[in-house]
Amino acid sequence: MTRRQHFSIILILGLLTTISPFSIDMYLPGFPAIANDLNTSIDQVQLSLTAYLIGIAIGQLLYGPLLDRFGRKLPLYIGLTIYLLASVGCAFTSSIETLILMRFMQALGGCVGLVAAQALVRDLFPVGQIAQVFSLLTLVLAVSPMIAPTVGGYTTVALGWHSIFLILAVITFLIMAGVYYVLPNGKAPDPSISMRPQAVLSNYFTVIKQPQFLTYSLVSGIATSGSFAYISGSPDVFMNLYRVSEQQYGWIFSFLAVSLIAPSQFNRFFLKRFTSEQIIYTTLIYQSVVGLLMVIGTWAGWFGLYGLIGMLFLFMAGQGITGPNSTALSLSPFSRHAGSAAALMGSFRMGFGALVSATVSILHNHTAMPMVSVMALCSIVGLLVLLVGQRLIHYKNQHTDLESTSKVAL
Predict the structure, then answer these.
(1) Where in the cell is it found (predicted)?
(2) Which CATH number fits domain 3-183+207-403: 3.40.190.80, 3.30.450.20, 2.60.120.40, 1.20.1250.20?
């Protein structure tokens, strides 16, 4: 693989992973306008985000077996086509109920990009390079929340929120062209993999009973879902509580997205001196401390607009480190079931994200407390799951070594 091919593949894989972040981030500045235009409340508009996350969680479970059975590209084309059509449906909706439904369908199609990209990384790169490749994908991924809300804010003001979804449809069409002309096929179709429900569930059970996968996919899902608390709560906190404009909100969101970029790239250097396990453990302790300080400060009224932005920046910096390492550790035990593993891991992440998003909406009280409290809780629970899971992995490895020694002795 030449350097140019390597760059092109990383770029297309990165763009596939940005479909859902763009779909989430780009319409956030339009929340007040959507609520006003559809004669509903911010709480109801937030449910369209929850529906999207639920759609991703369900859709990834469907695409995992499809990617293993039919190869990587055919499910990609089908899913992206569904996403494109649903985006047009979102653009022309006239009720919040239809928007929620179209967002769900949009997620069912677009989530194929997340699963396929992760499975293709496992297909195309050696195991030792996976964490570094995911760090590069995180760099591409981190650009989307810098661009999407800013574009969404100005687009909402200039053209109306409906145009956001038409832009998303055009972007997806261009990504489909890149998949066709640039991306290698990856793992070939495997006719031996059955699509019967019992067989599919058996594949997922094979994946989930692997202690390393279960531990780090849960850690990834729980710990990184703190970002969904921020995404769900920030439009109301900044635009209604602090009275910033749509454009200003876009710039604030873009600034906070910078907190993902530098840490994700430092991760490549950390991996030269530390293991992914050590990095995740340290990062979750850091995020738990920052999260608790953020809750205490918000409750005590220490933070104004800029103080809250600063604390969010410090907290979100940990996400750029936890995500790539936990993803690499979750997928590294698999080759044949990489698609199912990627789907299940992504489903955990988005499932927890949907739960967190709905929780922030339910706890909505016109303050920042629901958002920051849920963010802190995600890191603390993620740390506890990591500690328990690492003990389980250690016990499993010891038990396996003892069995191997006994067989050799016999």
Answers:
(1) Cell membrane
(2) 1.20.1250.20
